[in-house]
Amino acid sequence: MSAPSHRTSIWPAATVLIVALSTLAIFMVINAVTSTSTVTTTTVAVVGGLDTSRDLTLTDGCSSAGSPPSDIRDALIVPVTAHLTAHKIVNQGAGDYDCYLDYRTSSSSADIIAYYQTHVVALGWKLFSSGHSAGGHHGQQVLFQTAGSDSFYWVYGVTIESTGSDTRYRIRIYQNNSLI
User: Fold this and answer.
1) Does residue 130 sit in helix, strand or coil?
2) Distance (Å, rounded) from C-alpha 94 to C-alpha 134?
3) 83 DSSP 8-state letter
4) pLDDT mean values, one per 10 residues, the chain (180 residues)
5) Residue 149 is part of a domain; what is its CATH number?
6) φ/ψ (deg, to 5) at 98
7) Any bridge partners for residue 131, and if so which?
8) Which domain holds residue 124?
């Protein structure tokens, strides 16, 4: 007597593979048809606040050879009332990049602080300190932090240097030594 013959069919496994590939193809077509390639950007508009200057030369002093990365550089904003008085890349911070920009403006110190608190937070930075500045200055200071596309944390500070007929303030942006 001969042994019974058992055949195993590959059709059930082939059916699963065909269904999976068909489903993948359907979703790829749906994605191709519904995707848009336009990039939208948002501009922060604060009703009753100071407007942002579109003059990029007011922040160019802190841009050099790809530093800071564009997602960080986009937060270097100034109100329309600000005039650049000095800038310097000092590279003395905890990381590899450290820069400051000094401005004077006819706006009040309260308006300047409110401008940065509103706009920089709207650009995705986290406010982590607000109050009087240290280091011999008696003005107000706000500090923000965010993770950059370069895998470092970045710190953004605005310090009121002096008030009077004009408000003088400093923006300082530096790369923290901590990786994300």
Assistant:
1) strand
2) 17
3) E
4) 72 90 91 70 60 85 80 90 90 71 93 93 91 68 92 92 88 79
5) 3.40.1000
6) -155, 125
7) 141
8) 56-179
